Each structure stands twice: as C-alpha cells, then as structure tokens.
Amino acid sequence: MRIGIMGLGRIGAFHAETLSTLDAVDSLVVTDPVAAAATTAAERFGARAVASPEALLAAGVDGVVIAAATDAHPELILAAVRAGVPVFCEKPVARTIEESLDVLRAVKDSGVEVHIGYNRRFDPGYVAARKAVVSGELGPLTTVRSTTLDPEPPPAAYVAVSGGIFRDCAVHDFDTIRWITGREVTEVYATGANRGAEYIAAAGDVDTASALLTLDDGTLAVVSNTRHNPRGYDARLELHGMTDSIAAGLEDGLPLRSVEPGATFPGGTPHHFFMDRFATAYRAELTAFTEVTAGLRPSPCTVADAVEAGWIAEACTLSLHEHRPVSMEEVRKA
C-alpha cells in the first residue's frame, strides 16, 4: 500500500522511518510546509515529496499519517475523510475540545476510519495489563496509578500553545486509564505546582501536577506528571486489585534509583525520551494502522475515544484553577 505523511518534524520523520520498514507499505508520499523537510525525508526513505496536502491526497494514497502541528489537525483530518482516505493522526484531535467535537461530528457517519495516536495502547506491558483486567485475574480494582514524567520541559513556544500540562501530557494517562479499566471517570480533583522553568508559570501553566480521578465503579486513579525528571523519561502504570497487583513499565530502563541496600534493580540505561521508551509501541501502532487501511480492523482509538480523554483534561484544568473537585457532568454542560 501507499501511505502519505503530512508533517515531517521530529515525530513525522520518526513515523516515516518506521513505515518505510513495514512489509505492508510499498511506498511513501510526504509533504511538509518546509519543503526542505519533505525533500530530506524523500531522500532518506525513498519517498515521493509533494508540495501540499492536496497534492498528497491526489497521489493515490491508501492511508494518511498526520504528524503536523496541532492547529492543522482538524483541517487535515477532514480533508482526508472527504477524500475517503483512512487517517492516522497524532493526538490531540484539535487544539480545543470545541474543535475536537466539531471533528467528531464531521467524521461520525463518514464511513472512513480515523485512528488517533495514543501509543500506550500498543506497548506490550500496557497491553498485558489490560488483558489482566479484562480476564478478571486482578479481581475488582481498588487503585490505579499512572505516571508520566518528562526529563525536561518543552520549549517556551510549545508550552504557550500546548493548552497546559493536563491537555498535553496527562491526557496520555487519562486515555490509558479509560482503555485499561474499561470504566469512565465521574469526578476529578487536580492540583499543581511550579518547581522551575519560569516561562511555564508565565504561560499560566504548572510544571508538576497530580490528579485524583474517581471512576464510575468506585475505583480511584492517581495520575502524576512533571516536566522535571532529569534521570529520564518515566511512563508506567500500577493496577491494584482485590486479588493481585501488577505494573507496566517496571523494567530495567525505568529511570528510578533504588536506595535499598544491595539492590541492583533497575540496572539498565534509563529511558531518555518518549520515542525510545515507546519505540516498540510506535511500530505496533503504525502496523495496526496499516491493518485499518487494509480494512482488516476498525480504528483501535477513535476520535470519540480521544474526545473522552480530552474531557478529563478539561475537568482537571478547571479543578486546578478553581481548587475544587469537578464532575465530568459539569464540564460537559459548560
């Protein structure tokens, strides 16, 4: 099949490299607002570079991967859907929840599959954790702990348009919690602090945050995030049930140092960035998209799924600013 890639920044180029090695992909067509980026990618991966998204869609692609700037996501998703081309788009669907809802309404009855990129759904540890929940081997869950700690803050220009730590970073945890537990969030309480990087505070955001989520069956989920974890990129999950407790991400690349006498775990090189922590997941995610494109499976993470994670981020952002619990019903009515 022929896959088109719109956007060739860091993650777009990474996806191009991955796609170029998949057996199901015969050729790539690439485009980027910066022509040199498209030319470079074409040379590296044997792709065809074109001048615009319109030209890419006219090139007979079977599927489209969108890795462009967030502001461009809605327009590019809808252009591909109108052309009848299956879409993989990196999260988020759009810059705001309102724009995301517009996209949801537009694609709902289109018959075109749209796959939103939440890579933890494809990480082997997280997949095993979900199977453990679905099988019932943990018993009723009591507590879920989901952690995302970045090694360093993103640039000021990125922070200014990110929407805040809950919409940009913790939203991965929110999607993970919904997907693995199969439950919905009913209420949140969120807080945050500024521990460094003054430009984050100047943007009205926090660089360290926690959220307590109440799920619809009474399970409690605790989400922890920070932009300052210089030991490395830490993304992991704990599930505690009435029968057993398990963890995903508890492996030798975990960027955590034990001070227990004689302890040698974790003993590997700490994960430095999200692309090395989730390299296997990204490959599995794009392989899944080729299966979506071939009509072998439905989207494993729909626009509706992404919107639900977005609503939780909205509730946490409101809770942070107003220092109070917020129900999901309240934000949906706002």
TrEMBL record:
Highest taxon listed in the record's lineage: Bacteria
SUPFAM superfamilies, alphabetized: Glyceraldehyde-3-phosphate dehydrogenase-like, C-terminal domain (SSF55347), NAD(P)-binding Rossmann-fold domains (SSF51735)
| Residues annotated as transmembrane | none
Start and end residues of each Gfo/Idh/MocA-like oxidoreductase N-terminal domain: 1-118
InterPro entries on file: Gfo/Idh/MocA-like_OxRdtase_N, GFO_IDH_MocA-like_dom, NAD(P)-bd_dom_sf
- In what residue span(s) does the GFO/IDH/MocA-like oxidoreductase domain sit? 126-246
Q: What are the record keywords, sorted?
A: Oxidoreductase
Its family remark reads: Belongs to the Gfo/Idh/MocA family.
Q: What is this protein called?
A: Gfo/Idh/MocA family oxidoreductase
